[in-house]
Amino acid sequence: MSDDTVVVWDESLLAYDMGDHPLDPVRVELTVALARELGVLDRPRVCLVKPEPADDALLTRVHDRRYLSAVRAAPADPLFAGFGLGTSDNPIFDGMHEASALVAGATVAAAEAVWRGEARRAVNVAGGLHHAMPAQAAGFCVYNDPAVAIARLLDLGAERVAYVDVDVHHGDGVQRVFWDDPRVLTVSLHETPLALFPGTGFPDETGGPGAAGSAVNVALPPGTGDAGWQRAFHAIVPSVLRAFRPQVLVTQCGADGHRLDPLADLNLSVDGQRVTYLALRALADELCEGRWVATGGGGYALVEAVPRAWTHLLAIATGEPLDPATLTPPAWRALAAARRPGSEVPLRMTDDVDPSYEPWQPSGEPTAVDRAIAATRKAVFPLLGLDPHDPRD
């Protein structure tokens, strides 16, 4: 296996553009620009790969053929309605099929490079469109690129693929696609569905009849900060991954849990997101011989949070993590100010937050986060042969 890291990138990925909409591709543009300015993409073992669109054979591993036809036809029909398209969440835009297929193709290219041993890790920061359903657009997502990439890994011979989703919203589309497939473990940490879209991701969602224990959901209370989030992550994710023994780790690294994100209510910092990416890399190294496919996802603090979080992700995937105290380069600050006038442009790669945490214990006075942890462990740990009450599991 090569020690290279593939970064799948081309400016054409910015064509996934819904117009005046929260999912603004400027967040991806500014991420890549920041990573370039800090030298992350110029590291010796980084391979930049230009994506190709996913073809219908790939897309229909996940999506209904009638849905693909609708996505192609919708931009030419001003009266089009159906399949979740043409809504405020999923407005129709010119070149919608082509742009969506390119995002999916980019994540597939990342997965193929890792599975074939051409790279140990691969990243598509433009990906992570995890809400798209087999026959419906949802939550700003047209084609579900993580699901398409996982289906491709299965076709290439993978027997156990773990998907970990740290977006503030439940990874519902990926869970739906693999609900009955015991070869895929889906793990999602998200703000409680009682408070946030898409309204799914309760602890008792644990997989279909033939795949009990293949879905793991951690529903966190609004206001959860770094310490509580890390406590929940480490109380659940390492244990379920070790029990499952994946051959490859696929992650959706949405940055919308950040405290400045306008669409959600968690209280995370860039520093907390950075240590999460370090933990994911360590788990891939421990369990999958380093095989890690990472995508972006949500994130709507377009200047203030997303570019820094995903530049940390790129640095961690490509080698040496960036020092949180690193200054953002003046050229990047100027670009960010020009792209989003009036935004507060960060001066450093840190929020000056200590993301340390106290490990979960089953005893003592439980907090709201502890109750969320206990609910998930009670629901799914026995299905994986784990003790929900033993902090060593």
TrEMBL record:
GO MF term set: histone deacetylase activity
Keyword field contains Flavoprotein: no
Region (Disordered): 343-367
Keywords: Acetoin catabolism
Pathway: Ketone degradation; acetoin degradation
Entry annotated with the keyword Disulfide bond: no
Example GO biological process: epigenetic regulation of gene expression
Domain Histone deacetylase: residue ranges: 21-315
One Pfam family from the record: Hist_deacetyl
Family: Belongs to the histone deacetylase family.
Protein name in UniProt: Acetoin utilization protein AcuC
Species in which this protein is naturally found: Micromonospora avicenniae
